[in-house]
Amino acid sequence: MDRIIKNYDLDKVSVVTIASHSSLQILRGAKKHGFKTIGIARPNHGWFYRQFNFIDEVWEVDFSEFERVVPKLVSNNAVLIPHGSYVEYVGWRRAMVMEIPTFGNRYLLEWEADQRLKMKLLEHAGIPTPKSFDDPSQVDKPVIVKLYGAKGGRGYFIARNSKELMDKLQGIHDGYIIQEYIIGAPAYYHYFESRVYNRLEIFGMDIRYESNVDGRIPGLAEPTFTVIGNIPMVLRESLLPTVQKYGEQFTKAVNELVPPGMVGPFSLESIITDDLSIIVFEFSGRIVAGTNVYMGIGSPYSVLYFDNPMDTGERIAHELREGIKRGILDKLLT
Ligand code: AMP
């Protein structure tokens, strides 16, 4: 990456991302901060993105051949912003070796993709997590089963006890983890670890809107967790110090286990129980789609750090712009 960045014209940096997930927010923010913007869409999906004038170029690319456009991106002095759809369409293995400067710590994408590595990192951070069960017969409380490779909450199911669990596991041959089902209310925290200001910012929060746990199913369907959208939230202020502490613990764990450490946006996903304990069951080591709820308006928490409300797309662009000004762009990329 150092070799590629050395040849970049830093007055003409482009911001590129896959046209999906949080790309509208990312590219809008980048344009606002004076970057050229490129959206990479799947074949026949570019038309939607071409209507927005903050996207300078929309390229249609078959993601199985993403590597073919990388030299052209590099000649555009491009920095890639990874998000959930990049991980889904290109895959973390290819993302590891993609020869394009990538904002944040791309190596964290591997940890995020593996349910066991994911829980290991959270436990290393000393953050409370749900109990895991290796043996279905040992289960003594409601559990949630997460199939490896499940995406966006699809492929999860609940069992109320050990017998129901064993029945439901019949015929499942893929890998999975069995986790205590935490009873409480979900809350998802958006953080930004800034190398420019050397601080961890709580940048926003959301809750997910999921079929069928949030839908109108009057006893007619099993609970399922397919994400269909997101809703903004603010937290009881008395819980914010704990949220900050867990974010800092997570950053420290990433710094220790996944060099070069935490850079940029990430998220911790939790359930808060009725005794106000925050139990974290998941993280994302990059921008999450829940940040879209603040697109263009900024989150209420962003004003605690900046005069202007900002969304996470703008926050990324601000970090890149300041990083370029201060000569530390290479510290923001892997
Ligand atoms: P995920 O795809 O891991 O973000 O999880 C999808 C959804 O499943 C979450 O939004 C929660 O509603 C739910 N969930 C996941 N793990 C747990 C857990 N251990 N206890 C309770 N709910 C959970």
Furnish the topology, listing elements before pairings.
Layout: H1 2-6, E1 14-18, H2 23-32, E2 36-41, H3 46-50, E3 57-60, H4 70-75, E4 78-80, H5 84-89, H6 92-97, H7 108-113, H8 115-124, E5 132-133, E6 143-147, E7 156-159, H9 162-169, E8 176-180, E9 185-194, E10 199-212, E11 225-232, H10 240-257, E12 264-272, E13 278-284, H11 312-325
Parallel strand pairs: 1-2, 1-4, 2-3
Antiparallel strand pairs: 5-8, 6-7, 6-8, 9-10, 9-12, 10-11, 12-13
Helix pairs in contact: 2-11
This protein binds adenosine monophosphate.
Class of the largest domain in CATH?
A: Alpha Beta
What structural class results from the helix and strand content?
A: alpha+beta
* Strand fraction: 15-25%
- SSE ordering: HEHEHEHEHHHHEEEHEEEEHEEH
Low-confidence stretches: none
**Can you tell me the number of structural domains?**
3
Radius of gyration: 20 Å
CATH-defined architecture of the largest domain: 2-Layer Sandwich
Descriptive account of the structure:
The chain starts with a helix and ends in a 9-residue tail after the last helix. Helix 3 links the parallel strand 2 (36-41) and strand 3. It folds into 3 domains: 2-103, Rossmann fold (3-Layer(aba) Sandwich), CATH 3.40.50.20; 112-128 and 183-311, ATP-grasp fold, B domain (D-amino Acid Aminotransferase, Chain A, domain 1, 2-Layer Sandwich); 132-180, 2-Layer Sandwich (Dna Ligase, domain 1). Helix 2 (23-32) packs across helix 11. With 334 residues, the chain is an alpha+beta fold. It has helices at 2-6, 23-32, 46-50, 70-75, 84-89, 92-97, 108-113, 115-124, 162-169, 240-257, 312-325, and strands at residues 14-18, 36-41, 57-60, 78-80, 132-133, 143-147, 156-159, 176-180, 185-194, 199-212, 225-232, 264-272, 278-284. The model has no long low-confidence stretch (mean pLDDT 95). Helices cover 28% and strands 25% of the residues. The structure holds adenosine monophosphate (AMP). Adenosine monophosphate (AMP) is lined by residues 130, 144, 153, 156, 179-182, 186, 208, 210, 225, 269, 271, 281-282. Residues 130, 144, 153, 156, 179-182, 186, 208, 210, 225, 269, 271, 281-282 line the site of adenosine monophosphate.
